[in-house]
Amino acid sequence: MGRDDVRKADRLRELIESARAAVAFTGAGVSTASGIPDFRSPGGLWSQNRPIDFGAFVASPEMRREAWRRKFVTDDATRGAAPNPVHHAIARLVAQGTIACVVTQNIDDLHRVSGVPDDRLIELHGNGTYATCLDCGLRRELADIRPAFEATGRAPRCPACDGLVKSATVSFGQAMPQEAMRAAERATAGCDLFLALGSSLVVYPAALLPRMAKRAGAPLVIANREPTDLDAYADLVLRDDLVEIFAPYAEAQTVRHGHDPATPAP
Hints:
Blueprint: H1 3-18, E1 22-26, H2 46-49, H3 54-59, H4 61-78, H5 85-95, E2 99-104, H6 110-114, E3 121-123, E4 126-133, E5 139-141, H7 142-152, E6 165-169, H8 178-189, E7 193-197, H9 208-215, E8 220-223, E9 236-238, H10 242-251
Helix pairs in contact: 5-10, 8-9
């Protein structure tokens, strides 16, 4: 590790150790070490299984069938993915009272699996591990939907209201969940450190959150493999592998702020 890398690691540690209400904003780069590819990369899953636009899904039975076919192909490609040291580090920092809220663009559920409580987790783009009815909101489990789909080739309908059933994610052309976005904005406005991790920061309105935190006076840390348009606004920019950066926090045993690492802060 070069001198500049050591300096940046020390600065990150100082910022994390002084935080009491940090926000961790996470993107696809957090989950690549779990075997989930960055879908936008050349040759990634989207090149063969690009998600269907929301308008086409609603309008066309053929597109709904194709959307579900692509969904299960993608699920098979990422089956067995488990939280990596970055997820575990974030969960530990939540438990220690350093991170007050995790705002994620990811749909893989790995933050929850790693131990981040539901009341500390905001999934801006939904969750790909289950489905919901677009009309009544009834939750459906994929394990129930898939056998029937593969047997009949028909896209699922809601057993309660006969509405269209869709993976519980935000598709292209679908409105962002306003309640989740407002919750993310509230957490950002009150944070004392904003960690933008593994995100290209190009998807709006979510990419407005780092600017909001900076305007509110919170230090902004951007850790991403590639440059982002917001690097010039950041107090600290890290280009190293996220696992290398955050592995020490996943392994740390020190309890700070008077909280047990296994217990969420109040």
